[in-house]
Write a structure and sequence with these properties.
It is a single chain. By secondary structure, the chain is an alpha/beta fold. The chain has two domains: 146 residues, HUPs (Rossmann fold, 3-Layer(aba) Sandwich); 130 residues, HUPs (Rossmann fold, 3-Layer(aba) Sandwich). The chain contains eleven helices and ten strands. Strands 3-2-1-4-5-10-9-6-7-8 form a ten-stranded mixed beta sheet, sandwiched between helices. Strand 2, helix 2 and strand 3 form a beta-alpha-beta unit. Helix 3 packs across helix 5. The chain starts with a strand and ends with a strand.
C-alpha cells in the first residue's frame, strides 16, 4: 500500500528494533524508509541548546539500518519539538506513511501527558501506522520479521454506512490502485449494529440492511482483486470491532477521523480515538474523512 515510510522512535517505544528488519520491510512493499529520532533541547542552561552527545548517540543507533537493492534507508536526527520535526521530515522525504508508537492509555492520561502520535494524527497530511510499544518490545526476532513482512496485507475496516465510512473505503481504494506490489490481499468489512431499537426500526431489519449494504461495498472492492469478507455484529461497536480483530487473522485496523456523525457517533469523544487508545492491533489512521 505504501512505498515510502517515516519510522519515528524515541527509543522507549521499541520501534528502533526495525533497523534490523529492513529486508522484511521491503517485502511489505516499502521502497524507502527514513528512521527518525527527535532529541529534546537541553534546558538546564539559560538558553536551550542542542544536546550534541545524544544526537550522536541516536545517529549511531539508527545507523545500523542499511540500504539494499530493494529498499533505500535514510537516517535523520533533529532537536526540538518532536511533532514539528516529524512533520517537516515527512514533507522532506515525501513519506506516504508515518510509523509511530503509542501505548494503550486512558483519556485522562492522554489529557494530562499529551501524545506525540495524537499530535501527528491531528496535523499530518498523510496516513499513520500506530504500533504498540509493549508488543514491539515483546516480539521475538522471527515474530517481528513476519510482522514486518505483512504490515498491510489484511485490514479490518469498521463500516457503518456513514459518509465517513464510505470515504474511508474510497481512500483505501486509491491506495490499492496506486500500489504496484498489490500488498493488500484481504479486508474484513465489519458493521456493528447497536442493541436497542432506533427510530422504531427492529434490530433484525437493521442487520439485514447492513448485510445488503456490505454486499455492495464488497462487490466494489473485489474489482481490485482483493479478497473481501463481511461480518455484521451486534453490541457495543468498540468491543465488537476489537473482538473481530482477535478472531480474524488481520494485520491492522483501518480508521479515519470524521467531522461528526458516522464513526464519531459511536463513542465520546470518538470511535476512532477509542480504537487508537484501546486496540492492541496496529492501527492505520488515514486522513480525515
Amino acid at each position: 500500500m505504501f512505498k515510502r515510510a517515516l519510522i519515528c522512535t524515541d527509543f522507549s517505544d521499541s520501534l528502533q528494533r526495525l533497523v534490523d528488519f529492513v529486508p522484511d520491510l521491503a517485502k511489505s512493499g516499502l521502497e524507502q524508509v527514513v528512521f527518525f529520532n527527535s532529541v529534546p533541547l537541553m534546558t538546564s542552561r539559560e538558553i536551550p541548546c542542542v544536546d550534541e552527545e545524544k544526537v550522536a548517540e541516536a545517529r549511531q543507533k539508527l545507523g545500523v539500518a542499511k540500504s539494499s537493492a530493494n529498499i533505500k534507508v535514510e537516517v535523520e536526527v533533529e532537536s526540538g519539538r518532536a511533532v514539528d520535526n516529524i512533520l517537516r521530515i515527512a514533507k522532506k522525504y515525501d513519506s506516504e506513511v508515518i510509523f509511530s508508537g503509542m501505548p494503550t492509555r486512558s483519556v485522562l492520561n492522554e489529557k494530562l501527558f499529551g501524545s506525540t502520535t495524537k499530535g501527528i494524527a491531528e496535523q499530518a497530511e498523510r496516513p499513520i501506522l500506530i504500533l504498540r510499544p509493549q508488543l514491539m518490545s515483546a516480539y521475538r526476532v522471527g515474530e517481528l520479521s513476519l510482522r514486518c513482512q505483512n504490515l498491510f496485507n489484511y485490514l479490518l475496516i469498521p463500516y457503518d454506512g456513514s459518509q465517513s465510512a464510505k470515504n474511508l473505503v474510497k481512500m483505501l481504494q486509491q491506495q490499492v490502485k496506486a500500489d504496484p506490489h498489490h500488498t493488500l490481499k484481504t479486508c474484513l468489512l465489519c458493521w456493528v449494529v447497536e442493541g436497542g431499537g432506533r427510530r422504531g426500526i427492529p434490530t433484525a431489519d437493521r442487520v439485514q440492511q447492513a448485510e445488503a449494504d456490505l454486499a455492495q461495498v464488497k462487490a466494489e472492492l473485489e474489482k481490485l482483486d482483493i479478497e473481501v469478507k463481511t461480518e455484521v455484529r451486534q453490541g457495543d461497536p468498540l468491543e465488537e470491532i476489537l473482538a473481530a480483530g482477535e478472531q480474524h487473522d488481520i494485520s491492522a485496523i483501518a480508521v479515519c477521523s470524521g467531522k461528526g456523525g458516522g464513526l464519531l457517533k459511536w463513542t465520546v469523544p470518538s470511535f476512532t480515538s477509542a480504537i487508537l487508545r484501546a486496540s492492541w492491533h496496529p492501527v492505520i489512521h488515514l486522513l480525515r474523512c
